[in-house]
Amino acid sequence: MTREPDHTTPQPVGCEASTAKREPLVVNISDMKLSSDSADVIVTYSLGSCLGVTAYDPVLRIGAMVHCLLPSPGANREKARKNPFMFVNTGVATMVRKVIDLGAKRERLIFKAAGGANMRNDTLFNTGRRNFEALEKLLERNSVTLSAQDVGGTIPRTLFLYLDTGRVVVRSFGKEKEL
């Protein structure tokens, strides 16, 4: 879903339009948001074992973020057809197609990732690790590399993408780190 520039939002008296705070585009679990509005910020919360991936074209300032729950649909392709963003392998590929449809150039896209943690001692399924491995395989098959990542461990993360600059910030337990 893209957001067109909103020039109709009332601004506080005496304030310039550029100083008004806008609500961020929130990416829910198994969801994706994209925008070509450089004033937008895209955010996803509570990345535990889930994986958040950003794609950004620095020339056109087009960006997107996906929040994937699982690595792949396995034998259940119908689930991926209904919601490709639930899975790393279909969600990231769909996100890239949509960003390119907005005008971004594949060769300019910068990819970053966060999440993939081992939550609640998930040693049986290792969902976080498997999510990141699925991303690595997908990117390798497409000759793409991650520019930065903050994955693994046991902490939840919040991921921000600032479309004006392409900055990607990870916040966890009140501390921020730029990727």
From TrEMBL:
One of its GO terms (biological process) is chemotaxis. GO terms for molecular function: protein-glutamine glutaminase activity. Keywords: Chemotaxis, Hydrolase. Coiled coil: none annotated. Its EC number is 3.5.1.44. It catalyses: L-glutaminyl-[protein] + H2O = L-glutamyl-[protein] + NH4(+). It holds the Pfam family CheD. The keyword Protease does not apply. Probably deamidates glutamine residues to glutamate on methyl-accepting chemotaxis receptors (MCPs), playing an important role in chemotaxis. Belongs to the CheD family. PANTHER family: CHEMORECEPTOR GLUTAMINE DEAMIDASE CHED-RELATED. This is Probable chemoreceptor glutamine deamidase CheD.
